[in-house]
């Protein structure tokens, strides 16, 4: 069979295809987004960007109740959003297989916390698979569907950023034969309706199922003992197993592909066969604590950290320090990079519509409750203009709390269009109903920008490319009952400033819709702007726009000796915002060349 | 070269085409009979962030990440980003670096200074056995498309590796847009000519 190089996420999409999955939903979030983006190449699978993870989970449950194999994809913290629905699906079970993929983010490359989603398996009482490379990503989706149908339970597969984004060789296979017609829908209320009296009957079934799964775990093909030297025995899962294989060459291994419930038989056999038992895990001691609870002695978090991504070099260093490995042979030590190199910190793109809002919020010095999206970069200098951020949609609720606390200054919330649809509507409803005071800026850039420009209800097409009616944010906000709504061009600094002043002096819930397309989807690129160095006084106001296209040039101001401003012609998109704030008129739109 | 494993670290900036370059390098390894794994590390910003790719060829590759001090090749698309990843190169390894300076906003806004080019070269030479400085960007511009930079760099790297030119060119053809195949093949050959 053909071998191809696939990322973990591409392999998951392929796995869904081969497993005969027919319905897939999710909400974009690093590092999971590419799964659904790769799903659309398989034309006979229905896939959608749902408005949020919980809705995707309910949709997938509905499909699996109807007899269609289904999958849900989410980033790590999206599990918090969908868990409410996942947990009922564990009680009900399903008519067809259902796999939930959570892509965790050890190292916090793009997430607000470092939670280890494996704990959900214990809380929600469902089986958990942990692939370590792309081949396993594909295989585990297929196996997951099989297990889901065998045990009548959703199966959760947990990847990490490293597994989702790394590429490795994958052997492809054909798509499984699909179920034909479905229906009628099962009228099995005692199973599918979690009314308390029926849920009470389901609970013992859930517990018995866990016992059956624990027995099965000992036979799960990717739980295996690899005997080597018996001095050290290592238990590891996922990509950490791959790292450990290179660091502890020749040691004995118990590789775990299924980490809940654990294969207790294999663990007992392995622990008896080795002198020293070591459990290596990224993040929490999820496996280690269960093994210790079995009464088996092992070492784990005494040596290896709970925080951050566990890299192979860290693993080796800590193993040497703990005398599990001999010191490395002496050679010329490798050089480290010099310290204090200029950083290349993330910034809002040139031409970003969010720039104006943060320039003004910085100037107005108001407290700002932020939200999740590119606009969180408004937190960083030179703006330093978002003071809180914690979860999708949290900005509006936090703003409401600020208002109800009687702060002496007017509060502002910043939230993007996709995040507003995801979790911003209920808190806005709440503000209106409970007479909240504060300004919500809905930064409508017509896309889900940070995760790679996915669709949402405010955009006129779906993941599968179908044209649909756009939801009008203005009308939606009006229907919610907001009485003060202003809609302004985000690239018009003066208009934005006036609107912000009007909103922040209003004694009630005000919404400012700042409209401006993300530079990545804009179809109207403008020629780069220029600076008239004779007029530039090196005042530095334009630098407060935090635009990568604005640079310092070698020309100095005669009196202050400060370096004047230039504009990088490659980066500048001609958004015009810097021209509007330049007090001397030095920044200019290039003159149109005569035809 | 008859090494069992070859590890590459590619360092650059979002938009320079490093990810496509690492895909090509991975395909070449796989086509040459190696097991291959690779890992791209992208920053938060969509454009202009620091980007690193780890590419590993071997008989059986487990980890998709290289350990510090072990890379046989450090391939840098920009001076500062190459310097930043210096700890990864093996002291007997090779550095291929594109002669290109792109100021991060910390430098362009006057907050910090970009290291001198000569000082960077000195550091690179201390870290690795062999350093090739190539005019990659200029070569790409001469061809008429700055975006062929990644293929120019891969051309240069190919000269230092065993797989044949025709194998490389076959992969390049598959990995670039159809309309730009000829342009990229020219870029690849020009790049290959930069290493003597």
Provide structural commentary.
The complex is a heterodimer of chains A (595) and B (196). In chain A, helix 10 crosses helix 13 (312-321). Chain A has 595 residues and is an alpha/beta fold. Chain A contains 19 helices and 22 strands. Chain A has 4 domains: 3-176 and 189-217, Rossmann fold (3-Layer(aba) Sandwich), CATH 3.40.50; 224-321, Rossmann fold; 355-515, Rossmann fold, CATH 3.40.50.970; 530-588, 2-Layer Sandwich (Alpha-Beta Plaits). The model of chain A has no long low-confidence stretch (mean pLDDT 95). Helix content of chain B is 39%, strand content 23%. Chain B has a single domain (6-192), classed as Pyruvate-ferredoxin oxidoreductase, PFOR, domain III (Pyruvate-ferredoxin Oxidoreductase, domain 3, 3-Layer(aba) Sandwich). Chain B has helices at residues 18-31, 79-84, 105-108, 117-127, 136-143, 149-158, 165-175, 181-192; strands at residues 6-13, 35-42, 50-58, 71-76, 89-98, 130-134. Classes of the chains: A alpha/beta (595), B alpha/beta (196).
Tell me the layout of helices and strands.
The complex is a heterodimer of chains A (595) and B (196).
Chain A: E1 3-7, H1 8-18, E2 23-26, H2 33-39, E3 46-49, H3 53-65, E4 70-75, H4 78-92, E5 98-104, H5 119-124, E6 128-129, H6 134-151, E7 155-160, H7 161-165, E8 166-171, H8 189-192, H9 196-217, E9 224-226, E10 229-237, H10 238-247, E11 251-256, E12 258-260, H11 264-273, E13 276-280, H12 286-293, H13 312-321, H14 355-364, E14 368-369, H15 394-404, E15 412-416, H16 417-433, E16 438-444, H17 473-480, E17 484-489, H18 493-504, E18 509-515, E19 530-531, E20 550-556, E21 563-567, H19 577-581, E22 587-588
Parallel strand pairs in A: 2-3, 2-4, 4-5, 5-7, 6-7, 10-11, 10-13, 14-15, 15-16, 16-18, 17-18
Antiparallel strand pairs in A: 1-8, 6-12, 9-11, 19-22, 20-21
Helix pairs in contact in A: 1-2, 1-6, 3-4, 10-13, 15-16
Chain B: E1 6-13, H1 18-31, E2 35-42, E3 50-58, E4 71-76, H2 79-84, E5 89-98, H3 105-108, H4 117-127, E6 130-134, H5 136-143, H6 149-158, H7 165-175, H8 181-192
Helix pairs in contact in B: 1-6, 1-7, 5-6, 5-8, 6-8
